[in-house]
Amino acid sequence: MRTNTKAARRGWRAVSASLAPLLLLLALTLAGCASSSASGDKQQSNNSTLPYTVAVSNIREFSVPQKQSGLMRPAVDGNGDIWFGEMNANRLGHLDPHTGQVQTWVPPNGNYGIMGIVADTQNHIWFAEQNAGYIGEFFPETQTFKIYPTKPRPDGGPSGPQDLAFDQSGNLWFTELSADRIGRLDVATGQLREYPVIGADSKHFVGPYGLTVDSKGSVWFGELSGFKLVRLDPATGAMQTYSPPTAKASMMEVVAAPDGSIWFAEYLAGKLGRLDPSTGGIQEYAVPAIVSGASASGVYGLAVSASGNVWFTDVGDNAIGQFQPSTGQFTFYPIPTAQSVPFGLIIDRTKNIWFTEGAESANALGMVAGVSA
Q1: Rounded to whole angstroms, how far apart are CA atoms 360 and 363?
Q2: Closest CA to 321 of 370, 275, 368
């Protein structure tokens, strides 16, 4: 699969209206792509039904003025303000949580493709413009942009930058979904370095998607179509792969936890995965479905709190979920708007859980308030 601008725009607009087009898109991607093998991985699968409760919580929803805006991932800055991309509206958005006021800007040369987004220590906002093929920096104090183009694919198309994370030295790391590369941007010099993902070639698309940096500076990313969790050593560029127990597990967001473990979301399988880097062992937790009673589907957004609890978006159940690894307990917070299609998720400094609602009927930012993260 390679990103086609017009097709991608139509596809993501369809996703905003319904979950089905995204599931179809992923199914076609996975069916057409082969996985590479991994050796020596230690695995443990947990397919039993784990206990859960459905909580009553005050979920606030903040509507976005632009219709069918196509909200993707949120980010929180040092002031507690929320930032997000509007894929269908081709805008970068800002929400003041205190007033509910939303302000938006059109990025330069934007092509309806804002995906990953993160704030730096100066409260500059960084984002990945997937379809235009660049990393963007926004300066809120001057309301101006600066762009850092990524290298095109060999066929000339955009590299599809996807997810972003800073390391301890202030370098910005990102996945390049359509080019099967990992990028590193030195924000001080603007110098870009790229690392081809192992196992990828002209016939094998692995699709690096979610990315995180752990406390030791190692870069971790999940493969949408290569079905591996990968560790990249920044010092050498070497990569080590780990295979989840679930075959063809399409991994979405990846997060480093305070205890050093790496968590990842398996979208189609409806599972949470945890890797122990010290042993290489992977354990999976099947997310129970609170609507149908079977296994969940559409586990996408992911965040781990300071206490080690795992928060996630559950598209199939239209809920925000919390998993406590210490007890094995799941807690679900149903979203008031039906079929809202929750995507990205973030925890702010006051322990509120923020998420985006991508469906046309929702078109809002949501917040789970008054809970212990």
Answers
A1: 5
A2: 368
Distances (CA, A) of 333 to 68, 264, 270: 24, 20, 17
Q: Which amino acid is at 19?
A: L
Written as one letter, the residue type at 108 is: P
Question: CA 95, 98, 102: angle at the middle one, nearest 5?
Answer: 25
H or E, element range at 17:
helix 5-17
Report the SS3 class of residue 298: coil
Give the residue among 277, 231, 275, 224 at the shortest CA–CA distance from 253.
224
At residue 5, the 3 state secondary structure works out as helix
Angle at 311 between CA 354 and CA 42, to 5 degrees: 145
Mean pLDDT by 10 residues, the chain (373 residues): 38 33 37 32 47 87 94 96 97 97 97 97 98 98 98 95 97 97 97 94 89 98 96 96 94 97 95 97 94 77 96 94 95 95 95 96 92 77
What's the maximum distance between 2 C-alpha atoms anywhere in the chain? 53
54-70 core/surface letters (b: 16 or more CB in 10 A; e: else): eeebebbbbebebebbb
d(CA 237, CA 194): 10
Q: Which domains does the chain show, CATH number per domain?
A: 5-47+62-296 (2.130.10.10)
Query: What's the pTM?
Result: 0.88
Coil, helix or strand at residue 15: helix
How high is the pLDDT of residue 45? 41
**How far apart are the C-alpha atoms of 86 and 319, rounded to whole Å?**
21
**Angstrom distance (rounded) from CA 143 to CA 131:** 22
Which neighbouring-strand residues pair with 302?
A: 312
pLDDT in tens, 230-264: 999 999 999 999 999 999 999 999 999 999 999 99
CA distances from 244 to 43, 228, 261, 298 (A): 7, 7, 14, 17
Distance between CA 319 and CA 180 in Å, rounded? 32
